[in-house]
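Internal ticket - ligand job 614, 5-amino-5-deoxy-1-O-phosphono-D-mannitol:
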Amino acid sequence: MCGIVGYVGDKQARDVVIEGLRRLEYRGYDSAGIALVHDGTIAGDKRAGKLANLEKAIAETPLPPSTTGIGHTRWATHGAPNDVNAHPHLGSTGRVAVVHNGIIENFARLRDELERAGHDLVSETDTEVAAHLLENEVLAGVDLTAAMQAVCRRLEGAFTLVAVDGQDPSRVVAARRNSPLVVGIGEGENFIGSDVAAFIEHTREALELGQDQVVTITRDGVEVSDFEGNAAEGRRYHVNWDLAAAEKDGYDWFMRKEIFEQPRAIGDALLGRHDENGLLQLDEVRISDDELRDIDKVIIIACGSSYYAAMVAKYAIEHWTRIPCEVELSHEFRYRDPILTRNTLVVAISQSGETADTLMAIRHAITQKARVLAICNTNGSTIPRESDAVIYTHAGPEIGVASTKGFLTQLVACYLLGLYLAQVRGTKYGDEIGAVVRELAMMPDRVQQVLDDSGAIYALAQRFKDAKSVLFLGRHAGFPVALEGALKLKELAYIHAEGFAAGELKHGPIALIEEGLPVFCVVPPRGRDQLHDKMISAIQEVRARGALTIVLAESDDTEVVPYADVLIPLPTVPTLLQPLVATIPMQLFACELATVMGHDVDQPRNLAKSVTVE
Ligand code: M6R
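stdout (structure tokens):
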């Protein structure tokens, strides 16, 4: 969701801010704006639509030189995505400019108070109240840092705020509560960003801020405080990826690049986490073995694709550890009063580490004394910071809104967690665990093989470019794969797509089948005879009713051949690991179909990469 950039240094702030906003485009947005401190006042512009609209406006009416500025890409919550509601917002006199990510929940009350005091608010946003309140403080002689602390004490909800005072070019001040914010530490310059992509081309040194903190950046310094004005500290870290990782590298879309990076990403997710005998070493799991042995229930919470990774994890964890494992959407979890104890392990899966629904869910779990372990891709993000333990997925930056390498590396992390629990609790022999680890270690090559054999998918996208609906069927670990395939298609091609457990077909969904309807079918490996045969029955049932079957099955599975209109070969792998290879053709299909349909694959309509509001 909203992208935020702040800069103070000796470069032209306009260029740094616009480039930072470009690198944050992937978060999803519908308007963009910039404010610069110049000659005792604020100069700026803001436009509905893509960043290109803002750049065009700036090209027509250039902004004055400035070395201090802020910028914003807005994902609309309060008010339509138009020029007026776009950020930055100004106070009454135009002295203070503010950008914001999140939702100020008490904004209506504050707006009422301001209007009764004679303020004229021009937008429909919740943000504008913060601009007016900040400016009130500054006009009363308070410096911007103290003004920010005072205003934050009055705000409720989730917010990252970044502000500049037109009469103080020396500083940019930011605050965070429940919304992402990182500081980039440069030499003679400093940066604010929603995430490190905002400043990665300038510095890889970053400062992670804690909850309810205010940060002031100047050219030569960074000062952190709490909302009361007490000195505080952030956590300094080095960003372990560089600018090249945030560029397309010759691919038409980030998503396609990320699909093809998956062999490397899976390799990195496994790196250093097992020895040559398959003994697992998860050093980041800071929950003692004794505590892990006491766990009597696992609950995995997540949203979207991460939720489907959680569904796969349930099959693996229950099978390997015999610990009951529940899977729940984060936004449902908190509101049903779940039963949690000290012996419950809550696993939160989040690529971004900033998904508000998941963050609120882990906070609830923590208040109930459960242990919380995060599976996350983003160093410096909030969910791992607030969890007892973390397994980083090491996928590298995922820029495409549709998760690909993020999802596959989450699966790897879930497998590692399941095997580690089995190792610690002794529910599997070492050689059994070692056998699975060896299979996992072969996955980068197998995933590469699927990518190398993906030619048929491109033709398929051409063939189905006018499809109105596509169904996906799977069983067991193939069921979440079907759901993931359908989600990818909804996100990117904007067509009706649904995933079903194949056994559920006859209980209703089979009524949807009509002549020519494309149905993707994930066939379990033949090692699971019953499941395999039942899946073939399901394929026959839909085909008998006119469906066009696209069958994903082991390359030497001859039994499926008579029922497949299109056959997508998969390498032979254990059933529980099959999602790692079966998901890839679906990712490619969605990416290619959206390309053929002329859609923006990396920034699909209405979507945000990181969903930072509940
Ligand atoms: O960052 P998270 O993993 O917490 O994000 C969860 C979902 O918003 C995310 O997986 C979303 O569904 C993706 N766009 C799926 O492609």
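Auto-summary: The radius of gyration is 25 Å. Residues 303-306, 350-352, 355, 358, 401-403, 487, 491, 610-611 surround 5-amino-5-deoxy-1-O-phosphono-D-mannitol (CB under 6 Å).
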